[in-house]
Automatic annotation (TrEMBL):
Assembly: Heterodimer of a catalytic subunit and an accessory subunit.
UniProt subcellular location: Cytoplasm
Name this protein carries in UniProt: Queuine tRNA-ribosyltransferase accessory subunit 2
GO CC terms, sorted: cytoplasm
Family the UniProt entry places it in: Belongs to the queuine tRNA-ribosyltransferase family. QTRT2 subfamily.
Keyword Isomerase appears in the UniProt entry: no
Ranges for domain tRNA-guanine(15) transglycosylase-like: 14-383
Cofactor binding: number and manner: Binds 1 zinc ion per subunit.
Residues at which Zn(2+) binds: C325, C327, C330, H356
Keywords, ordered alphabetically: Cytoplasm, Metal-binding, tRNA processing, Zinc
Named cofactor requirement(s): Zn(2+)
GO biological process: tRNA processing
NCBIfam families in the record: tgt_general
Record organism: Cryptolaemus montrouzieri
Length: 409
């Protein structure tokens, strides 16, 4: 797998492409792109077959280790790659450590060990056990082991330990990768730790960049502990760290960032030069019965950023989630029907919302690429900002609109 960037400039929105994908020589993926967040190898709420109805284009599946840890034994017997095992041979798989849609427990990282909370409880990974697992899964790309347990309130001591651990994991994992026959075609993404400290980021970057020729891209890690809180993490807080890191990173390498970032923050990160994100934001919205309705082209008949289909106002609303949307949910089903499904706790309710959210988010990224090409990304940013700011103000209102009560049905 190779990454080719259109303009080798730093700190600007950029277009690129991933080519020469393992076993898929005819496929090209355009960046900035969004990886499809998965749990247990599936996009939450929808199967691979339904996903093809939403988008028939090739995608990168983000496979958080925490959600597939229990597959390892079966994968050893299977003796194939993770995309084949999960029934999605046409996909490209990226193995990551934590699940960006769920809050990762803090304060359990120790020297040489990273804890992962699986369904069976806490599992401690060291470089050796982690790389054995990566070998069992044989992904197309993967994150090296790292200590990303830092956020805005982390102490200098914790940040310093995170950097020391990440630097050590980096060297140990690369050592194993070099001699691994199974991983010789895998693209390596190296996490950069250091929390909100420029000096710690500097130390981490200096150490990690020594092995740049073996690495395909970098993850700006340690900005948060995952979960829904990332949606409202102020961009002004992360901007200096992301900007500093990108300035130091080689322009020809991929820059990735994980988390439930809102669309406005995503555009601002793209403007700094980030190439890869994930769809954990779609999952988070779906879990709270919210569907994205913010305009992408500016021609949509929408006055809202998102709608919560559990609200009673949708009981007799027979419009689609978003008028004009061509997703399978909007083409066939109404807000009123989805509201009813949610009220009787039918599984189809979140399925239809997720279909729409994934479709809308993929369109959003297509639009971002088009805007970069046509040099009008700021116009899209302004449009999204108006809607997102209004939504932020609404959710801060003390009185919330009534939502359907499950027990009355
Ligand atoms: Zn739709």
């Amino acid at each position: 797998m190779k990454f080719v960037v259109k303009q080798l400039t730093k700190g600007v929105p950029r277009l690129g492409k991933l080519i020469e994908l393992n076993g898929k020589p005819n496929i090209t993926l355009q960046t900035p792109l969004v990886m499809l967040h998965t749990q247990g190898g599936q996009v939450p709420h929808i199967t691979h077959e339904v996903l093809k109805l939403v988008s028939n284009n090739p995608h990168i599946l983000q496979i958080p280790l925490v959600s597939v840890h229990n597959f390892k034994e079966a994968m050893d017997y299977f003796d194939g790659a993770i995309n084949e095992f999960i029934g999605s041979e046409e996909s490209i798989c990226c193995l990551t450590l934590h699940d960006p849609s769920n809050l990762t427990q803090q304060g359990f990282n120790a020297k040489g060990k990273v804890p992962v909370w699986t369904k069976n409880g806490k599992v401690q990974y060291n470089s050796e056990s982690y790389m054995k697992t990566v070998e069992s899964f044989r992904p197309d790309m993967y994150h090296l082991l790292s200590d990303g347990d830092t956020n805005q309130s982390s102490t200098q001591k914790r940040i310093s330990k995170a950097v020391a651990n990440t630097n050590a994991f980096h060297k140990e994992c690369l050592e194993i990768h070099r001699t691994s026959e199974k991983l010789k075609d895998c693209l390596i993404i190296a996490p950069i730790a250091g929390g909100y400290s420029i000096s710690q980021r500097k130390d981490c970057l200096e150490s990690i960049l020594k092995d740049d020729d073996e690495v395909g891209g970098y993850l700006i890690d340690g900005l948060h502990n995952n979960g829904p809180e990332v949606e409202f993490l102020p961009f002004s807080d992360i901007e200096p760290i992301v900007k500093y890191s990108i300035d130091k990173l080689p322009a020809e390498k991929l820059r990735t960032i994980q988390g439930c970032w809102n669309p406005l923050t995503i555009i601002k990160l793209v403007k700094l030069g980030v190439d890869i994100f994930d769809t954990s934001y779609c999952r988070m919205l779906t879990e709270r019965s919210a569907a994205m309705t913010f305009p992408i082209d500016g021609t949509e008949d929408s006055v809202t950023y998102e709608i919560n289909l559990r609200q009673l106002r949708y009981l007799d609303d027979f419009q689609p989630i978003l008028i004009g949307c061509q997703c399978p949910a909007c083409l066939k089903y109404s807000r009123g029907y989805i509201h009813h499904l949610l009220s009787v706790q039918e599984l189809l309710g979140p399925v239809l919302i997720m279909i729409h959210n994934i479709h809308h988010f993929l369109r959003f990224f297509e639009k971002i690429r088009r805007c970069i090409d046509e040099d009008c990304l700021s116009q899209l940013e302004t449009r999204i900002e108006i809607y997102f700011t209004r939504y932020q103000q609404e959710i801060l209102l003390p009185q919330k609109e009534p939502v359907v009560n499950d027990t009355i049905y």
